[in-house]
Design a protein that fits this description.
Organism: Streptomyces gamaensis
Strand order of the largest sheet: 2-1-12-11-10-9-8-7
Strand content: 15-25%
Distance between the termini: 16 Å
Order of helices and strands: HEEEHHHHHHEEHEHHEEEEEEH
Shape: globular
Radius of gyration: 19 Å
CATH architecture: 3-Layer(aba) Sandwich
Pfam family, one: Beta-lactamase
Largest sheet: 8 strands, antiparallel
EC number: 3.-.-.-
Structural class: alpha+beta
Number of strands: 12
Oligomer: single chain
Protein name: Serine hydrolase domain-containing protein
CATH topology: Beta-lactamase
Number of domains: 1
Keywords: Hydrolase
Number of helices: 11
């Protein structure tokens, strides 16, 4: 794989803010590589933060392919508690157009009093989430504006789990993780993982009891490589519903004003030389992650680091740039 694999790793390690564990996995055509720095190995688990949403998107699409839910279902149809205000659909939640705030009411104040610097979501329970939902009114009419919402993504996970009659981690494992062979990937903070750091200080494992579908997933470079490879070739999935879902999450759902960008099911889409580039990133108090792929060139990259994002961090942007460089080299090789 050109540029040299070690240069990919060196570039991302340099942008990681002093991470002691960095793992990078890349796909370019038929070539694959998993590269590790420091305390990381191919199977080392990293907190992926909001990359969790891309797995939740796949779960939604898989259940829609089975006919168990519909994208235009009101979320209240699949929750045990009422949802006040105008109808919010599952698609609204998966495209950040629900109008819900970024965080549930009450979470921020509780986090500032407690674990803001380590685990801001840890003391916010499912009962707190239900109470917050009763007190919430959308900031705008659902479907009219994009407003990033961890609250909405978390609600989507609960709605899917309630529709299936089990909890989110179990449902995700049965429908997505086990069929794709992702043995390192789940929401369990008790399994071994890399030690996260924020501003140079060790952080405890990330705990998100009320919003696991938004940001609780852990994964490894080798599992993320398998996940991205499946997205590049949906036909390789083991079931018809998963094959349909892997393609469906990549379909643009709305256009973002004045940018040319599109929103898929949680995936961000940017046109690159007339071709779609899909990407997402994530962060917790101790970890930063980036994943992206270009389905038409068969190019993908995931980068994981055990340092939390800061205002000066360039890890995510560097991951995006490295992915673009890999794609450019792919086209040069094909043109040559």
């Amino acid at each position: 794989m050109t540029p040299r694999p070690t240069s990919l790793l060196d570039t991302l390690t340099a942008a990681s803010g002093g991470a002691s564990a960095v793992a990078v996995a890349a796909v370019r055509g038929g070539e694959r590589a998993v590269l590790c720095h420091g305390a990381a190995g191919p199977g080392t688990r990293f907190e992926t933060g909001s990359l969790t949403k891309t797995f939740t998107a796949l779960l939604l699409a898989e259940m829609a392919a089975r006919g168990e839910v519909r994208y235009d279902d009101p979320v209240g149809r699949h929750l045990p508690c009422p949802v006040p205000g105008p109808p919010i659909t599952l698609l609204h939640l998966a495209t950040h157009t629900s109008g819900l705030p970024r965080l549930p009411p009450g979470l921020l104040a509780r986090a500032v009093r407690g674990g803001w610097y380590s685990n801001p979501y840890a003391d916010f329970s499912l009962d707190d989430l239900k109470d917050a939902l009763r007190r919430t009114r959308p900031h705008h009419r659902p479907g009219t504006r994009v407003r990033y919402s961890n609250f909405g993504a978390g609600l989507l996970g609960h709605a899917l789990a309630h529709a299936a009659g089990c909890d989110y981690p179990q449902l995700l494992a049965e429908r997505v993780l086990l069929p794709l062979g992702l043995a390192d990937t789940d929401c369990d903070p008790g399994r071994p993982q890399a030690l996260g750091h924020w501003h140079g200080r060790p952080r405890p494992p990330w705990v998100v009891p009320a919003l696991p579908a938004a940001m609780a997933l852990r994964s490894s470079a080798r599992d993320m490589l398998a996940f991205l490879t499946a997205l590049l070739d949906p036909r390789s999935a083991p079931s018809p519903s998963l094959r349909t879902a892997l393609a469906d999450v990549q379909r643009p759902r709305l256009a973002l004003p004045r940018s040319g960008h599109r929103m898929c099911l949680f995936w961000n889409l940017r046109p690159r030389a007339g071709r779609p580039l899909l990407h997402h990133s994530g962060g917790t108090r101790g970890f930063t992650s980036f994943a992206g792929f270009l389905p038409r060139s068969g190019t993908a990259l995931v980068a994981l680091a055990n340092t939390g994002p800061t205002r000066l961090s360039s890890f995510v942007q560097t991951g995006y740039e490295v992915l673009c460089e890999l794609d450019l080299l792919t086209h040069r090789r094909h043109d040559g």
